[in-house]
Design goal:
mainly alpha
């Protein structure tokens, strides 16, 4: 099961599209911010989903350009989409932050170096907060489902900053 499958099937369920249009839709909605999805993986996944019978291919004559393949979701694709929705909605939510390996190893550094890394981590998260707030302003007219994800990330960043301040205070008191 794959979140990329879910993204692609969800886009095509809305309306039939070419692989290029799917890619543009993913870029427009900034879905790569929330999922691990790359442009080359989109094309591969579209082909895999069509080979598995989840997408149907229709060749559309181009006006001035070459013919293009337009993908639409099949009944099997709708069933797979629904099973993916159920699967991801019922999984435990992993919160995996790469910076946790830094936190886990801070006690192996001298205190000044460790505190410097904590400060750098705080700066990094603060930049993420600002970027997230810019997204919220820039995309204020997007549908609720997209807007709420940006708001969710903003809350997570702010919570991380509060946690980091508390951790820093505790770390400073260690001898």
């Amino acid at each position: 099961m794959s979140t990329i499958d879910l993204v692609i099937l969800g886009i095509v369920a809305e309306k039939p599209q070419s692989a290029y249009d799917i890619q543009k839709d993913i870029e427009y909605h900034h879905l790569s911010r929330w999922t691990k999805i790359s442009i080359p993986s989109i094309y591969r996944k579209v082909l895999q989903l069509s080979e598995k019978g989840y997408l149907r291919i229709d060749i559309v004559k181009g006006d001035r350009f070459a013919d293009k393949a337009v993908y639409s979701i099949t009944d099997e694709g709708k069933d797979y989409f629904n099973s993916l929705m159920q699967y991801y909605a019922t999984q435990t939510v992993p919160l995996l932050f790469d910076f946790n390996v830094v936190i886990a190893n801070l006690n192996k550094l001298n205190k000044d170096a460790a505190l410097d890394l904590i400060s750098k981590l705080k700066e990094s998260i603060t930049v993420s907060v600002a970027t997230n707030e810019e997204y919220l302003t820039e995309y204020s007219n997007i549908p609720l489902v997209g807007k709420t994800i940006i708001e969710q990330q903003g809350l997570l960043y702010k919570t991380l900053l509060e946690w980091l301040d508390t951790f820093r205070e505790q770390f400073e008191r260690i001898d």
